[in-house]
């Protein structure tokens, strides 16, 4: 089967662990022919989203041996980029003749071209996933009431009759499809995110330990906490985690990976001491998997990120902020939820775990038992059912 992944509603970042990266990879590993049609949107070396003014189509083969076709915006004004209108995509549909079109988000304005292709090729299957919820989208009046409740809802309604399945990648994103876009419930289901089986196997087979991953000053009996991702206004609870760790034994170490927004840098940097709290900057996929695997505990006290599911796929115990519609990561007790994610609460919860008593051992045991549920090999198969 020929599968075209369309990544025009948002960014497509080479060599990352987002669903747009891993799902095409595993579709290809299943024996399908795969291509990716993507926007120009990328991250810079610090993990910040940038939109280069690309004037021509760019084609290349990515590290998974999949052709990526990046197409320019029709209009590079602020308004043009917001409405996600791209140059003609009909050419690429006709050129490739896909049997399945997997659209990552309806939030772009070229859906008419896909509808026309479907009308001319009625056997083509269309599936659409959704990465929008009220934590990352519709966060102001214009976004909620104009973009999502009018423009993107209209786009979703327009393509709905031609679409087999709509997937929310979190329970909150399933609800967004139902409650904001008003799509038929019988077409909507949950398709979770997860971890890359190949990277999981690689880091598990490498001869790694805490010293090789975190440095020679780390002792094997140190309790290592790891947190990853962008540290910004949506995830400033990381500062509370730092304060909590400073109240605990020196054998408790916190390693932080990711970018820090300018408004938080001063407060953040003041707490880095390279004795108990370490900041290691942005890391690539493989390094992220390594540090997560060697951690004793993963803590994500802010808004949801894909690292939650990656951590679950690696079988590591986790402590995360309790958000509505994100509790799918907990399967029979592999996760501890934080209600407030403030310093006081985290001190209480961490003290229950840092001596690796029965509570910790049960948490770790359950994390290992359910890890396979978050592997992309399973998720890719489900996405084609």
Walkthrough of the structure:
This is Glycosyltransferase. Pfam families: Glyco_trans_1_4 (PF13692). Keywords: Transferase. GO terms for molecular function: transferase activity. The structure is a single chain. The chain is of the alpha/beta class and 385 residues long. The chain folds into two domains: 2-191, Rossmann fold (3-Layer(aba) Sandwich); 197-373, Glycogen Phosphorylase B (Rossmann fold, 3-Layer(aba) Sandwich), CATH 3.40.50. The chain is 37% helix and 18% strand. The protein contains 15 helices and 16 strands. The protein has helices at 19-29, 78-83, 90-96, 111-120, 141-159, 171-179, 197-205, 210-214, 237-246, 262-270, 285-294, 307-313, 343-351, 358-370, 376-383, and strands at residues 2-7, 33-38, 42-43, 49-50, 58-61, 67-70, 100-104, 125-130, 165-168, 188-190, 223-228, 252-257, 277-279, 297-300, 318-321, 335-338. It has an eight-stranded mixed sheet with strand order 5-6-2-1-7-8-9-10, sandwiched between helices. β3 (42-43) and β4 form a beta hairpin. α9 crosses α13 (343-351). The two termini are 13 Å apart. The model has no long low-confidence stretch (mean pLDDT 94).
